[in-house]
């Protein structure tokens, strides 16, 4: 196990292996088998490009050899910040074969996040697009120090074009399946994201069991709408799960209906995964967009709680099944089953997928609560790692002494084993599935010379669930900047767009609790009053 990672105790590793959850095969091994069996089967589709299983297998081999010739070695970390393109998938498989470790950044990340990920992982290389949605990622790479190599998909400028990294394949030692294969990102509830190490064995089980629960077969076409650097779109079952069963992956360049609906019609997409805001948009647009969506058989909705009313309407409106999906990059996967009753699908977030997922629902003291009562969800299991990478101090509070992960989610456990998610313990805004850590944004706000104090809270929003409201106490000069000026300031500091405040409230002082802390409950009540929202509308409020 890589230094800085927490291994599973030997008795658990033996159990998971004996029960067949963990298999002695590195990620990507299945690709080789499928390529030999049916090289001409289409594996990957972009709007203007296609790649077969045979082509994907060959490109992964040649790219792995090219990266090795460029100086990368097994164990090197490679930060990948690419949108949904074929190069993302070929690069991942090349790194799996080389034994180098992908670190998945998101296209929306900017200097603050990218510099953190490169430093935290000691990245040897960074892989970026030249330009995505009007943003020049090469300019961003120039401001990030650390990686020795920068590879670019597209025009490289002074960097190296990824498509020129190519060499004759050579025998490479297979990675140990028990070793770390990749790093996912935490939701960043305590600031910048932490790195979650996933092994070949545990992540292979992750993608296989979720593919089985979705009924994925080689006949399916999976549409990757969400960024495939997210665990959800990568392997729940996502891209890797679809390739494992021999299906076709269709990569949407953006999540916009204008891009996505024509792809569904043209490629006869059968399965996809959405966050609730996108699901609501599809619900509105399905009848008026003019696209043929009749090929869809299953739409997963996750990343945030999907309201029961919308869940009831979605399936009939689009003529497909809905599957609620609740999970986390830290491991646990809960999903409704294909044969669950419609009301169960509408009102719960599913059951844990593995027979060896262990669940506790506890109160603030750590004592178990009765079934049906709200408590914090704790979990451990064969795809739930025992700690974050290089985070010993944080791991001491994030995990119990016997290895249960404290998820920070408030849930109710039903007698059927289904979970109902009721909110969050942690101080976090769930902005349409994007997790915004309040304290990270507050740290940036406090850097503005006109701000003396600040507090960031969730603000109810009927479309995406929550938006971000920043309360600001002006500094000695007496005048805080307006929202536009503050947003520009935060952009200049490299903060991702989804973390920028949607509203700014200037106040003379903050209410405080009995122990002298800022009383965010009262601030949330104030913004509810100002917006006319109903009590309990935000996950932050439900979690307090």
UniProtKB/TrEMBL annotation:
Answer whether the UniProt record assigns the keyword Ligase to this protein: yes
The AMP-dependent synthetase/ligase domain is annotated at 35-389
* Domain AMP-binding enzyme C-terminal per the UniProt entry, residue ranges: 440-517
Superkingdom of the organism of origin: Bacteria
This entry's Gene Ontology molecular function terms read: acid-thiol ligase activity
Q: List the Gene3D superfamilies.
A: 3.30.300.30, 3.40.50.980, Luciferase, Domain 3
Q: What family does the entry list?
A: Belongs to the ATP-dependent AMP-binding enzyme family.
Protein name in the entry:
(2,3-dihydroxybenzoyl)adenylate synthase
| Species in which this protein is naturally found | Verrucosispora sioxanthis
